[in-house]
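2024-03-11 09:14:02 DEBUG pipeline.ingest accepted 1 chain
2024-03-11 09:14:02 DEBUG pipeline.ingest length=344
2024-03-11 09:14:03 DEBUG pipeline.predict start
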Amino acid sequence: MNTNHQQGLHHLFNKWCGEKVRQIQPFPKSGSNREYYRLISPGHTAIGVYNPDKKENRAFVEMTRFFTGQRIRVPALLGFDPGNDVYLIQDLGDNTLFSVITGGKDSFKNTPGVRERIREALRGLAQIQVVAGREMDFSICHPYRQFGYHSMVYDLNYFREEFLDRLGIDYSQEALVNDFQEMARWIGQTDQDYFMYRDFQSRNIMLYNDRLYFIDYQGGREGPLQYDLAAFLYQARAGLPDQLRQQMVDYYLEVAGRLTPIDVREFKKFFYPIALLRVLQTLGAYGLRGLKEQKQHFIRSIPYALNNLKTIYPRVQGIDHYQELNRILQRLMYYKISYNEPNQ
C-alpha cells in the first residue's frame, strides 16, 4: 500500500469518526490480492481495505449496500474512495465461526451450541441466496455474472493447471478437458436463479456481539443453491463429521424450502457433483498459493481437501462416465503430500 492509498484510508477514517488514526495493524496476507488493515484511534477502530481491482471493489460496495438494505448482517460500509482503491468497513473483531467450530477439541463441533451456530449460518445462507437471487442486479458481479458453463470450465482448468500440473501428474489433456466440458454442461442443467456466495466458508463468518456476520462475498454471482452449501460443509480444515454434514443438508433444505420451492430430489442429484467441482477448485487454489507460492497454510490444507474428495467421490453418480477425470480422482484420493514446516 503506497502513500496515496494510506492517506485515502486515513481520510476515510477521519471523515467517519472525526478522529485521527493513531495505529495501523496489517492483517496477514491470505489467498487474495486484497490488503486488510485495522485502523485504530483513541475511541474507534475500523477495517481498511486496499484492492487494486476496481471492478471487484465496486462489486463489494454494491453488494454491501444491497445486503444492508435487505437487513442481512454484513459489515457496515463506512467509506469508499474509488480513486485510491480503498474502502473502510466495520470492525467485527477476530472471532470467526471457524474458530468456534474447530475449538481445539475433537468433539467440540458436536456440542449443541456449535451445532446451533452452524444452523444459524445455514439460515443466513438461505436468506442471502434466495433474497439476493430475487432482487440483486447481477450486472455488478465480477469476474463472472453467472456460475455457468464458462465459469465451471474455468474452475476445472484452474485445478488442472495449478494443482495437477504442479504435482506432475500425467494425464491426457484432450480427454480431461473434454470431461470437464461435458461435466460443466451436465451441472449447468440445475437451477441457477439464486445468489451464489462463491466462498461461503466458516472463516468468512464473524461472531460479533453474539451474532453471525457475513464477509468476503465480492466474488458472488448468480448460480445454484448447492454450491455454497457444499463449500461450507466440505471446508477443508473445518473437519465436520460426515453424519453432521448429512443432517445439515436436510436442515438446509427444510429452511430454504420455506423461502422458495425446492425439488429435493433434483437438489440432491446435483449436490455431490457440485461438491466435487468445489473441492477441485479449492485444490487449484491450494496449488497456486501453496505449491507455487509456498504458503504453508495452503500446503497443510491439501490433505484435508483430498480427504473430502475421498468422501465425496463415491457419491457422485455417473463419475465413471468421465473416464480420464475418474482415473485421476482415483489416484488423487490416496496421494500423499509432503511439506516442510517453516523454521520457528
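2024-03-11 09:14:41 DEBUG pipeline.report The two ends are 27 Å apart (CA to CA).
2024-03-11 09:14:41 DEBUG pipeline.predict end
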